Amino acid sequence: MIPRNDHFWIGLAVSVFVTVVAYALFLQLGDYFSAGTGRSIVFRPRTLALLAICINVLPMNVFRRTYRTRSMKGLMVGVMILAVAWFVYYGQALLDG
Fold this sequence. Notes:
about 80% helix, 4 helices, mainly alpha, transmembrane helix
């Protein structure tokens, strides 16, 4: 039996939504920590973006436990697209050394 709301597009939307929200939260946490310590704590945007992409393992585990295979496929496609976009955007700086 296919669970309700098991669609490819739901997984794709969840991957983009979780990544954007996690990136915004990481930026806010960096500002919060900087204000709390009185020193400037700066995290590189590429590190925050990579962490935001990696946060998608949480909904992936939820989809796996609830047997939402189509949604998990959409989530993985979204993660792969975001990872390729991250590498295209930040890869040149990483490979130049």
